[in-house]
Amino acid sequence: MPSNALPSELRRFVKLRANNNCEYCRALGSFSFHPFPVDHIIPVSKGGSSDHSNLANTCQFCNGSKFDKTEAPDPVTGEMVPLFNPRNQPWNEHFLWSEDFTKIIGITPIGRATVSCLKMNRDEAINLRAALHDFGVHPPDLLS
Q1: With contact defined as beta carbons under 8 Å apart, do 41 and 87 qualify?
Q2: CA pair distance 116, 139, nearest whole angstrom
Q3: From start to end of the chain, where are the E strands?
C-alpha cells in the first residue's frame, strides 16, 4: 500500500461527512461519472497528516486543480492568501451562489482565490448546476 493510501473506513467516513459532495465546489457525487477522491487539505508533501481533520471529499476537477497548492493569489488584490479549508472555515463565510445558482462567488480573499485556483466556474460546472437546479437537486443542502 502506498504511504499516502487511506484506509477504506477513513475514506467512507470522509465521504459520508460530506454527503459525497465536493467540499469545495459542492458538486454532487451522485451525478458524477467518476468517484470523488479524498483530498489532503494540507498535502502530505507539505507536512499534512492523513487524519480526518485534514481530509476533504472533492470532485476530480477541484482535486486536480488544487493538486498540492495551499495558497493562491486573490484575483482582486493579487495578494497570496490561503485556499479555503473546509475543515475549519464555513463555506458560507467565503462563498455564495449567484442569483441563478450556477456560479460560485468568492466574497472574501480566500473565497475569490479558491474559486479562481480551482476553476469552480468552468463552463461544464455552470451547465451542470443549471440542469440540476431545474431538476430541484441543486444547490446541495450541506452543512456550512
Answers
A1: yes
A2: 20
A3: 38-40, 55-57, 71-73, 80-82, 95-97, 104-106
pTM: 0.92
Place of cell 487539505: 41
- Give CA 35 to chain center in angstroms: 14
Q: How confident is the model at residue 143 (pLDDT cuts 50, 70, 90)?
A: very low
pLDDT in tens, 24-69: 999 999 998 899 999 999 999 999 999 999 999 999 999 999 999 9
Q: Where are the domains of the chain?
A: 8-134
Average pLDDT taken over every residue of the chain? 93
Angstrom distances, CA of residue 25 to CA of 3, 12, 29 = 28, 20, 11
Give the Cα separation of 1 and 21 in Å (integer): 26
Element housing 116 (H / E) = helix 109-117
Instruction: Quote the CA–CA distance of 96 and 108 in Å, as a whole number.
Output: 10
